[in-house]
Structure formats: C-alpha cells, structure tokens
Venom S1 protease 18
Amino acid sequence: MVQFNTLLLVGLLAYQCVADSSSSSSGSDEHGQFVGARKTNCTCGQTNKAVGRIVNGQRSGVNEYPHMVGVAMMVDNVLTTFCGGNLLTHHHVLTAAHCNHDDERKRFLKVADHDTQSDTESKYAKIYAVDEVLEHELYDPVFFQYDIAILVTKTRIEFNLAVLPICLPTGPLEIEGKSVKVTGWGRTSLNQNPSRYLMKADLKVLNLDICESNYNRSYINVQDVHQLCAIGKNQGICIGDSGGGLIWLDPETNRYTLVGLNSLSKSCHLDYPMVATNVAVFIDWIQDQISSSTDLTDIATCGKI
C-alpha cells in the first residue's frame, strides 16, 4: 500500500450497522431519479432506490449507483477490488492515476457489483478486462498532482438498469460549500479490512485553502485548480477507495455529476479533509483521450444540454 507522510490511498469510513429505512439522511430514493428542468444528451447520473442504512458511513443499496465500477486485479488467485472507477462510456472508466501507475498486473472492471463476496446478488454483475490504461502525462506519483487516468476495454460494456454512465461537467462548476456523495469499497477503519459492500458517505466541498493548511504544501497548490477539498461529519476517507467519485446532484437536471476523483486522505482521520482531483478541469483531456479510441464505437460521454 502506497503511503507518503501519513497520506493514504482512500476508502470510506463506516461504523455501526442499523436497519432503518426511515432514516432522515437523504439517499438516492430522493435524488437522481425524476427528470429535472434541464436535460442531458444521454442517460446518465441516475440512481436506483436505496435499501437500508449504516450510521455515519452508509451501506448503499444493491445497484444504487449504476456508474460505480470496481477496479480489480488478481491477488493470490483471487480477483480483488482495490480501487473505484466511474463509468463514462461503453468502453471507458475514469479513475485515479495512482491506482495503475508502475504496476503491470492485469486490471479488470467489475460493473453492477455491490457485495464483493457474492456472485449472485445482482443479475447485472459482469467483469470486463482492461485493454489499455491512459494515464495523464503530467501525473506526479510522489505528490499526486494530475491524479487521473482512463481505463479502456475493447469489449462493449452493456448498459442496463444497474449499469449506466455518470454525467460529466460541461464546464467549470462553483461547488464550494455544496454537498457531494462519495462511494466505495474501502476500509471502514484504518485497522480493518476493506468493506465487502459498496459504501456511501456525504461530504461538503471546502475552500482549497483548508486542505493546504492540513497537508504539506507539496501536495496542495491553491494556485492550481486541479484539486478539490472536502470533509464529512463523522464520515470520512480511508484506504482502498481511490479513484471512486465525488458526485454532485445538479439541481437543474436532478442527475448526479462527477466532480471529483478520490485522491488523498490523511491517516483515515475524520477530522481531516480529503483531497480529490477536480474533474471539471480535465474535461478537454478526458474528451481528447476518449476520441483517440478510433477503433471503438459508442464512445460519447453524457452531460447537461
């Protein structure tokens, strides 16, 4: 596991499990389903109704977030999810560069996955081999700058109720102070194993100055808009969920838009903010990389129109 000065690859912190579907915290049953005033150019950012809750970090419902992809590789002959990814097209998944840097082991994409220890929970679950990794050319593996990459599969990923792309920003977003959700299979505490279930948590986007004051300045550059800063209330980020997305409910479309990629956290500490790659800044790079897949079809991304 990569670690620099207590900076850790990220995953969701979660604690006591309760079966309380009447919880007052908002879930995807309230958001991301009904059509908003503005449209999107293709189906994206939808959610499926949540079931059950977990206090602090919450267990997501089965296939609640259709854009969420598990990035996996073989470890001791077991296919193991070690990072998250975000489905963009029938062939492309957006993740963090540090999930793939300097590691030649074969990657796989697990779609419609929820319980990593069950092969029967979702009839939509499938596994696709990654054929190409498109890492940002300026990625810095020491200081996690430009921490973004695209995973490409030549096999067409079929869309359905449980497998759908996330909406991408169509331009800069003013989301400081806004609430976002983050999902993943990361550890529920520093000393525990990764969660077998997809977890979710609510965070708030902060001014990047706050992250700069909590991290070595080598990792955070407030003059550079390539990063976001976010924190949760008794919810946070730990090891194992890098590359998963920060998603924001666009009130105009009532669809979730990918605004960040989980990049850094500090010792799984709930009192510290986490750092994410700012997706909106990389839209041109993302589109250029996807357009370079000239041998593939159905590669259009989705967003607000």
User: Anything to note?
Assistant: The domain at 68-165+283-291 is CATH 2.40.10.10 (Thrombin, subunit H). The longest strand covers residues 255-266.
